[in-house]
Amino acid sequence: MKSTFRPALVLFAMLTLICGVLYPYAVTGIGKVAFSSQADGSLVTRDGQVVGSSLIGQAFTSPQYFWSRPSATGPMPNNASASGGSNLGPTNPALADAVKSRVDALKAADPTNTAAIPVDLVTASSSGLDPDISIAAAYYQIGRIARERKMATEEVKALIDKNSQTPYLGFFGEPRVNVLALNLALDQRH
């Protein structure tokens, strides 16, 4: 037994050094050099202040801003350390109640809007941190934004179109718009 203890201990120490120290530092260093912005959290700054991340959603509640997808992280919305879906299935009454309350909130915020509410405005993404909404979800909010900011609906639609992103590589995913970028464009415009 003594003859196997020393090699096992040496192997353990070597693997700890390689996997626990050298590899993480190497990957972090490569990330900082090759993908500096992403390695630092894809932070978005405005006037020298960090206002958010382009990769993590934010909870906008003011009626003059575009609203993000609901967050599945609780009790604090869009908490990256609590990332993960709600695990509520489509037949779960808690999910139905949550969706109903979100639909009611959207209708209360814009009672004249009779359009169908896009599903991504009432359901959380699987990570609970999605920074993007569909183009349909952004278009759904045009009337409220235009009214609150005293803008023409065509001007709001043009901002959405200007900030829209195509699917990755042209076919992965759906067209989308980053809510933080869109709200910053709104603030810059007015």
Overall description:
This protein is mostly helical. It has 2 domains: 1-40; 42-189, no CATH class. 47% of the residues lie in helices and 9% in strands. The chain is built from 7 helices and 5 strands, in the order ααββαβαααββα. The strands form 2 sheets. It has a 3-stranded antiparallel β-sheet. A two-stranded antiparallel ribbon has the order 1-2. β1 (43-46) and β2 (49-53) form a beta hairpin. α5 crosses α6 and α6 (153-163) crosses α7 (179-189).
Please, what is the average pLDDT?
Answer: 90
- Judged by helices, strands and strand pairing, the structural class is mainly alpha
Rg, nearest Å:
22 Å
| CA-CA gap between termini | 76 Å
How many H/I helical runs?
A: 7
Helix content: 40-55%
Low-confidence region ranges: none
Sheet with most strands: strand arrangement: 3-5-4
Count of individual beta strands? 5
Shape, principal axes of CA atoms: elongated
For this entry, what is the oligomeric state of its chains?
single chain
Question: Could you describe the largest sheet, including whether it forms a barrel?
Answer: 3 strands, antiparallel
Question: What's the order of the H and E elements?
Answer: HHEEHEHHHEEH
Q: State which percent range the strand residues make up.
A: 5-15%
Count of spatially separate domains: 2
Secondary-structure topology with pairs:
Blueprint lengths: L1 H33 L1 H4 L3 E4 L2 E5 L39 H17 L22 E3 H6 L1 H8 L3 H11 E2 L10 E3 H11 L1
Antiparallel strand pairs: 1-2, 3-5, 4-5
Helix pairs in contact: 5-6, 6-7
